[in-house]
Specification:
alpha+beta, 6-stranded mixed sheet
C-alpha cells in the first residue's frame, strides 16, 4: 500500500533512511563509529556467517573491508512499513555490493587473510536484501534487528585498478579513512564555498 497515513510516518521513514545510509557509508569508509550509529545498542544481526550482537559484527566488517582493495554498498530499492505512533517499523532494502580483493583466500577469516601472501584475487558483485526491524527510542530511529538475505553473486578475476588507464584523469580518489573528501563536505556545510574562495585568492 503506497498511501502515507500522516506526516509523522513520512518523517519517521526519512529518519530510517538515514540510518540505512549510515550503515553503507560506515562500511565503505571503514568508519566503525558511523557504522555502529545505524543500530540501537541491543540490536542483533543475522547473516549466517555471523548471528549475534551488532557491535562485534561491525568490528568484523571494518577489519574485513580494510583487507580489501575497495568496497561499495549500493542501496537500490527500498520498501518500508512505518508506524510512528507505535515507534516501530520494518523495511526490505535491496543492496548491490561490490567487493575487490587482490589476493586469494577466505576474506571472512580476517586474521588469516591479512597474513596470507598469494598471487591473484577476485572482484565480487553480490546482490541481497536487508530485512530490517526499526524502533524509535527517545526520538531516535535506528535498526533494532537486521536479517541479510543472499540472492545472487558474480565473481571475476581481479584485473587491477584501472588497467587501461581509463580513469587516470579522475584525481580526486576515495579513501577508506577520514581523509576522504566526504568528511570535509558533510562536517562543514560551508566547505565548498570556502574552498572556492581559497582558489580565487
Amino acid at each position: 500500500m503506497a498511501k502515507v497515513k500522516n506526516i509523522e510516518d513520512l518523517l519517521a521513514e526519512q529518519a530510517v533512511r538515514k540510518a540505512v545510509a549510515a550503515y553503507s557509508r560506515g562500511a565503505d569508509r571503514c568508519d566503525l563509529e558511523i557504522l555502529k550509529s545505524a543500530f540501537h545498542d541491543d540490536a542483533e544481526v543475522k547473516y549466517g556467517s555471523y548471528d549475534g550482537h551488532y557491535a562485534e559484527f561491525c568490528q568484523n566488517v571494518v577489519e574485513g573491508h580494510l583487507a580489501m582493495n575497495y568496497t561499495s554498498h549500493t542501496v537500490i530499492n527500498q520498501y518500508y512499513e512505518i508506524d510512528a505512533d507505535k515507534s516501530r517499523g520494518a523495511g526490505e532494502i535491496y543492496v548491490l555490493a561490490f567487493l575487490s580483493t587482490s589476493q586469494s583466500g577466505d576474506v571472512m577469516d580476517v586474521g588469516a587473510y591479512k597474513d596470507k601472501k598469494s598471487e591473484g584475487g577476485f572482484d565480487y558483485m553480490v546482490s541481497g536484501r536487508y530485512l530490517d526491524q526499526y524502533e524509535c527510542r527517545g526520538d531516535d530511529w535506528r535498526i533494532a534487528q537486521r536479517q541479510y538475505i543472499y540472492d545472487w553473486s558474480r565473481t571475476s578475476d581481479h584485473s587491477g585498478q584501472d588497467p587501461n588507464s581509463l580513469f587516470e584523469g579522475l584525481i580526486y580518489r576515495g579513501k577508506v579513512t577520514k581523509e576522504d573528501l566526504s568528511y570535509d563536505y558533510l562536517n562543514d556545510l560551508n566547505y565548498s564555498e570556502r574552498l572556492n574562495s581559497e582558489r580565487q585568492s
